[in-house]
Here is the input.
Amino acid sequence: MYQAFGFDLDNTLYDQGQHLRSFFAEAGEWLRAQSGVAPEIASACFVAVWERRTMAYPFLFDEALRDLGLWRADRVRDLITKYRAHRCGLMLEPGVSGMLDRLSRRYPLFLITDGNGELQRSKVEELRLSEFFKFILYTDDYGPGWYKPSAHAFSRAASLLDLPAAACLFVGDDPDRDIEGARRAGMATALVLRGPFQHRPCVPPPDIALERIAQLETALSEQRLAALAM
Here is the structure.
């Protein structure tokens, strides 16, 4: 069975909507000062584009500002800066802290996350995740060409663990980035069916499908029992 477990961060260990909705409210207030637009209208526009496009869409701020009739290049740059600096009270998904604690006592755990390195590090700190992981890989440190679904970070993780990739199970929510990236490196995969990608097809299917990440331990036990019965 598996000798190590890897995890994605956003929408896997916590609901990224916490951070985004908080920021979009801040962005609405900022745009009111900039242009007089009602903050609730601006915030709702950002939310609508996010729900339609997901945060994987690189032009989310551009599209929302255009929908509001407020696009300017300097406003996009300012919003990106504000987004990276935004902080709010993040909370892990229910049961995640206990699950990570139990797993980390038996196996090495690692985290691989895309996005701005400074922002992702602040999320890890706010969620108090460092204590659970043997190491954390921020793909931003390697450059945009090495973001998921590149196999680079996944292969790097297996190398740091001195394990074959097939001995690792990676858990994520995005079929195109998390599952495909881990698969390219030769890792087993577990897909969390939540967040903006929950209805996106995953072909071929993951080794494990979870409605909630806290179900991982139960799924692993069932998988072991099934293997013993064969």
Q: What stands out?
A: The chain is about 50% helix and 10% strand.
